[in-house]
Design a protein that fits this description.
Blueprint lengths: L6 E11 L14 E9 L3 E11 L4 H6 L14 E8 L7 H19 L14 H4 L1 E7 L7 E3 H4 L17
Parallel strand pairs: 1-5
Antiparallel strand pairs: 1-4, 2-3, 2-4, 5-6
Length: 169
């Protein structure tokens, strides 16, 4: 086993918000990861469509840049959920906070494969993802409550000596 300490990210989710309510997300805690739900022609209604991040700008500012959603066939029923990095001991330094947001977005995309995300841009070999463990709290909707980089990266793809246990004779 690797002795390197895992990075645990707690995401406190809230929502649902309508597209127009996104403009209220301008406060000092309005940074993190977001999910967009809506209708998909193959997967049906109320489907996880997209996971994104707001790390150097608020959710409001980032979501305003997501202009193509206004052309979605069911735009009026799109819902947004926002996940804020949370924990004990106060806010970490900005660089660490931003790194947590960036890595959390990548691992959540790998684990959930939302319909409108381009998963090809997420590297399963990213060393920052291997030791990452995400705990989702609150209204995390279709996301798994826990997501581990050990499970969704290539960490165990080539493990030597991996085999089923057997009874000794």
């Amino acid at each position: 086993m690797n002795a390197k300490r895992a990075c645990i990210v707690h995401l406190q989710w809230s929502g649902p918000l309508t597209w127009s309510q996104k403009n209220k997300l301008t406060g000092p805690t309005d940074y993190g990861v977001y999910q967009i739900y809506g209708c998909h022609s193959v997967y049906g209604v109320d489907t996880l469509l997209y996971i994104g991040k707001a790390s150097q700008q608020t959710f409001a500012k980032r979501l305003k840049q997501e202009g193509d959603w206004i052309f979605h066939q069911d735009f009026e029923r799109l819902t947004i959920y926002v996940g804020r990095c949370s924990g004990w001991g106060g806010t970490p330094p900005e660089a660490d906070w931003e790194k947590q947001i960036n890595l959390a977005e990548k691992l959540l995309i790998l684990a959930h494969m939302p319909a409108y995300n381009a998963q090809k841009g997420v590297d399963r070999d990213d060393p920052g993802l291997v030791e990452l463990h995400i705990l989702n709290w609150g209204c995390y909707r279709s996301l798994l409550p826990e997501v581990s980089g050990w499970r969704y990266t290539s960490k165990f793809d080539d493990e030597k000596g991996y085999s089923a246990f057997r009874v000794s004779e």
